Amino acid sequence: MALDLQHVAAELAARGLRLTRQRRAVLEALADTPSSLSPLQLYEAARERCPELGLTTVYRTLEVLDEIGALRRVHGPDHCEGLMPVSAAHAHTVVCSACGRVAEFTACDVRRISAAAARETGYRITDHFLQLTGLCDRCAARRSAKRRP
Amino acid sequence: MALDLQHVAAELAARGLRLTRQRRAVLEALADTPSSLSPLQLYEAARERCPELGLTTVYRTLEVLDEIGALRRVHGPDHCEGLMPVSAAHAHTVVCSACGRVAEFTACDVRRISAAAARETGYRITDHFLQLTGLCDRCAARRSAKRRP
DNA sequence: CTCTTGTTGAAAGTAGTTTTCACTTTCAGA
DNA sequence: TCTGAAAGTGAAAACTACTTTCAACAAGAG
User: Fold this and answer.
1) Fewer C-beta neighbours within 10 Å, C or N terminus of chain A?
2) Are A78 and A12 in the same domain?
3) pLDDT (0 to 100) of residue B1
4) Claim to verify: residue A109 and residue A132 sit in the same structural domain
5) Which residue is nearest to nucleotide C10 (CA to C1')?
6) Model confidence over A1-48: pLDDT tens digits?
7) B35/A contact by beta carbon, under 8 A
């Protein structure tokens, strides 16, 4: 999941912030996972790279990443799920309902839908949040294999 | 926000559950608000109808409503926001970023987008979650009035 | 080197939610 | 109408996720 360390470092520097060992560990852990993570999971993953890391620092780093806009939050209709690094400027996510792997896609023509919604509700639409759920290729394959064994 | 009390009562009965005074208060409060509510806000609103209501019961009622499928959760990209009654079988929400009022719309042709996402990611799409943010008619009017006073 | 400012982890604190528990309500069946 | 079983209740305790506080540490500028 392309999370551009250089870009993050530059953004940090521009705000007088530093790219510390701890922050780097969090960033790398975040960039390295195929699924979205909870703060605690991220903490555990980052700890393998930097064992003296504290949970507090993870939360603080997430806050900073949020400000920079390098963080995406993955939701489901039921729960708030987890955290992902932002890669593409405008992308949406698909979460696998079986294994939790997250993929991004850029195809997004919500203009039509937005226009219809505006007509229906009278709201002036300024932003949208779209997230799909499904089965990733692996899980889909596994599932159909099970059905016809 | 049409929340069909009769329907909820029937669903409850079908599971051997009861529509108590407290549950009714929660349901009515939920049905009565134009914005989405947090559990605490819902508790306060429902208390005006049933002052001896406890917060615990609100959570328990929400759980039950969730099971029945009579509850919709409103999210934003950043935070998990609040709770809404389900009205239409399949509807999405628009939240006003200024005042928080929520409206529903039914226009939803995500087939095109789903197909494109499937092509891009290889996932088999099973579900979608779409939510728009914007300005409701009132807030939009107020805003343009301010700009040209 | 040293001053300034950002950064850190542990521990304390807070908020939201769930669990526990003793008591109450409802309702089907005697 | 009673009665017993099962659902439901609120208050308080417990739990979990997150934030704040604080004293110590690290890093770059001068």
Assistant:
1) C
2) yes
3) 46
4) yes
5) A54
6) 456 788 888 899 999 999 999 999 999 999 888 888 999 999 999 999
7) no
Select the more confidently predicted residue: B112 or B47. Answer: B47
Question: Per mean pLDDT, which range of A27-31, A90-94, B14-18 is the poorest?
Answer: A90-94
CATH number (domain holding residue B31)? 1.10.10.10
Does the nearest atom of strand D lie within 7 Å of B46's Cβ? no
- pLDDT score of B55 more than 90: yes
Q: Does A113 touch chain B (CB under 8 A)?
A: yes
Mutation target vs A (from B95, B114, B129; most A CBs, 10 A cutoff): B129
Domains: count for chain B: 2
Show which of B37, B57, B85 is a domain's final residue.
B85
Q: What is this structure's pTM?
A: 0.83
B145 has a chain A CB within 8 A of its CB = no
Burial per residue of B47-73, b for 16 or more beta-carbon CB atoms within 10 angstroms, e otherwise: bebbeebeeebbeebbebbeebebbbb
Domain of B46?
1-85
Round and report the angstrom distance from CA (B144) to C1' (D18). 39
Contact, A59 CB vs strand D, < 7 Å = yes
B5 lies in the same domain as B45: yes
Contacts 24+ apart (CB under 8 A), A57-66: A57/A22, A57/A23, A57/A26, A58/A26, A61/A22, A61/A23, A61/A26, A61/A27, A62/A26, A64/A12, A64/A17, A64/A23, A65/A8, A65/A27, A65/A30, A66/B78
> Given this model, what pLDDT does residue B70 score?
86
Nearest to B105 among A104, A112, A117 (CB): A117
Indicate yes or no: CB of A106 within 8 angstroms of CB of B94: no
Stretch A62-80: mean pLDDT: 81
Mean pLDDT of chain B: 86
